[in-house]
Amino acid sequence: MAPIETTERLGRSLGFFSTFAIGTGTMIGAGIFLLPGIAMAKAGPGAVFSFLLGGLISIATAISMAELATGMPLAGGSYYYISRTMGAAFGAVIGLGSWLALVFKGTFALIGLAEYSQIFYPLPIYLVAAVTGVLLLLINYRGAKSSGSLQNFIVVILLVILVFFIGEVSFEVEPENFSPVAPYGIIPIFTTAGVIFISYLGLAEAAAVSEEVKNPSKNLPRAFIASAVVVTLFYAGIMAVVAGFSGPGRSIATVTPLADIAGLIAGDSGRFFIAFAALLATLSTANGAILSSSRFPFAMSRDALMPEWFVMIHKKYETPHNAILITGLVMVLLLFLFDIEELARLGGAFNILIFILLNMAVIILRKRTLPGYEPTFRSPFFPFVQIFGIAGSMLLLPLLGGLPLLFSVLMIFAGAGWYMFYGKEKALPAYNLFDLLENNVERVSAEPEPVGRVLVPVSNPGHERDLLKLADLLGNEIICLHVVEVPSQISLTVGQELYHEKQIEMDCRFREDFEQYPAKFGNKREYIVAFDHDISNSIIEQAEIENADIIIMGWHDSKRFKYSFGDVTNDVLLSSKSQIALLKGHLPDSIKKVLVAYNGKENSVHGLSLAKKIAENAGASIRIISVVSPDEDPEKKEKIAEELEGLVRKISSTPASFKLLERYSIEDAVLEVSNGYDLTIIGDSSERFKISLLGTLSQRIARHSRKPVMIVKKSKPISKESINYLLKKRAKKFYARLRKEKGKD
């Protein structure tokens, strides 16, 4: 018996907008409400160029990230890209530094929230910030459903408010307020760019969801670049109207500049409105920092760079409680150690270092070969985009001051020391930067082309052997798929961890039964465990990845089975490019007689083809039946009989016969004959856009048959290729008709 290969995968459920919203949401937040005032105090109107410079560096890095993400569309984001390019030691530095930079950003947001809360009611700033931090810690510790959807909703609301703010304030802008552009000199413009760089920290975080993005070759580049461009335009637009509004007697160099401007234009109502938006933004940023706290330690733990304790899942709340607890406590502690400008500098400093390494990674991978790295998106204007990103970042780093530089150096030593103490000799990847530069990384051998591949999704142990038997009879290679459904409020990587720690209730008999099943005809077998928020999405995705020729699914009437006939089957039929076979009932130990209900349509032809394969391997005979109305035209009946006779003559490998039945009810005719056969095969010919994608006829036959029934359907999902085909076909007919008409003339 051939060995069984086991594979685990995470499903992809995020489209372009969801990915764009995540990237934009991590950047549009506290910074846009807090930093303009600080920037004006440091650089005057020239602060507009500070935001533009930071944005241009971010856009260049977004382009580099897009190439890295399409070459390595896996969870872990900047940590994963840098560790796989430069080795585990660099991974330890980036993992720890990114986590702490995220904590600084969360603390920065808490102080901003406390500052804006003063507009509503004056309370001690640090008390408000600390209490809010503790509350967010408790909420995330216990788990919060739909927190990601809430974050996206807040982002949309904030963008609308900011567009309205820019539009209103632009009418109050006075051109003379832009002169002089650089009242404090050119250097403060660059220094301020480093201070506000914490605003773009979320760009690197957004890459952490790459493994969950559908069609990553298109959606990742578009989402990353669009997020960086949109955020840059918003920041520059806000800064421009702030600078143009601020003049003698209207200074807004405060921590709450947007609220102050709104108060001057619209009074208390405008001030309160912007303050409320700022509270949403700062709350969203602080919550996002805690919510994402397990991302980097989880990726590091997977690579043996972090103890498993740090990412343990709470048995009751199903959250990475230890990571959340430590992150929340450190955030609250930092409130009392640094002021808001120092937090911005510290968070931005390490973000600059990350951007430098990401751009360097693209240059390295273009010149050297990393097995499995085949990006579908290539950076335009290489290497000038990357050089700009590196040079711009390196220019800003020394201008941030001594403390941020010291922090960056300490994090480098801390990460390297942690690697030497904890991760050396066991951490992944096993190679280092010098191995990659010398092209000494082991190459991955190419997989052979798949032939006759059958995908079998399983969820019901009582039906698994029937599906495997059918797969064995039909295909040369069997892929058994077990989908672990992960709750939407838990990330797929966390669900995978829960699975391995046996904290998710599941039936472990699937793999055991698959290993023990005595395959007779399948040459190769593989077992896949897929983690997904949506079962049907996972089946469709894995079928495409495995180039499956057919998907075999089970249908039982009982709703307690995961793959009962219903939404999952309809979703798969609507979107899958593979052929579908749905088995109703249990197969006998020995299949001797196979019945095929044939009507000449495409899926019926597919059904007959599968019947031939089953009959050949099982040593069975085939009976083809076709049902016509007794009132049908005799010539048409004769034509159908001739077609059936021709089909039988073509079947030489197994005994075959046909019968033309004259009945008013196709359903009754098929059910009557099927009682004498071991398996009935029906090609479903229902229309594509009916509410139920399995037609009522095939449903009724399968539901009422006392013998097993296999329903066959070849889905034709709408795609760009199919639309182009239809348009070309219509155009061809149109021109043919024109030529015919011209010929008549």
Q: How would you describe this structure to a colleague?
A:
This protein has 27 helices and 11 strands. Helix 5 packs across helix 11 (257-291). The protein is of the alpha/beta class and 745 residues long. An 11-stranded mixed beta sheet has the order 1-4-3-2-5-6-11-10-7-8-9, sandwiched between helices. Helix 18 links the parallel strand 2 and strand 3 (477-485).
Compact overview of the structure:
The protein is an alpha/beta fold and 745 residues long. It has helices spanning 16-25, 30-43, 47-71, 77-86, 88-117, 125-142, 147-170, 187-195, 202-206, 216-245, 257-291, 295-302, 321-334, 340-367, 384-396, 402-423, 433-437, 461-474, 492-500, 509-516, 535-545, 567-575, 602-618, 634-650, 666-674, 696-704, 720-744, and strands spanning 4-10, 453-457, 477-485, 524-532, 550-555, 579-584, 593-597, 621-628, 656-662, 679-683, 709-714.
Annotate the secondary structure layout:
Layout: E1 4-10, H1 16-25, H2 30-43, H3 47-71, H4 77-86, H5 88-117, H6 125-142, H7 147-170, H8 187-195, H9 202-206, H10 216-245, H11 257-291, H12 295-302, H13 321-334, H14 340-367, H15 384-396, H16 402-423, H17 433-437, E2 453-457, H18 461-474, E3 477-485, H19 492-500, H20 509-516, E4 524-532, H21 535-545, E5 550-555, H22 567-575, E6 579-584, E7 593-597, H23 602-618, E8 621-628, H24 634-650, E9 656-662, H25 666-674, E10 679-683, H26 696-704, E11 709-714, H27 720-744
Parallel strand pairs: 1-4, 2-3, 2-5, 3-4, 5-6, 7-8, 7-10, 8-9, 10-11
Antiparallel strand pairs: 6-11
Helix pairs in contact: 1-7, 1-10, 2-5, 2-10, 2-11, 3-8, 3-10, 3-14, 3-15, 4-5, 4-14, 5-6, 5-11, 5-12, 5-13, 5-14, 5-16, 6-11, 6-13, 7-10, 7-11, 14-15, 14-16, 18-20, 21-22, 25-26
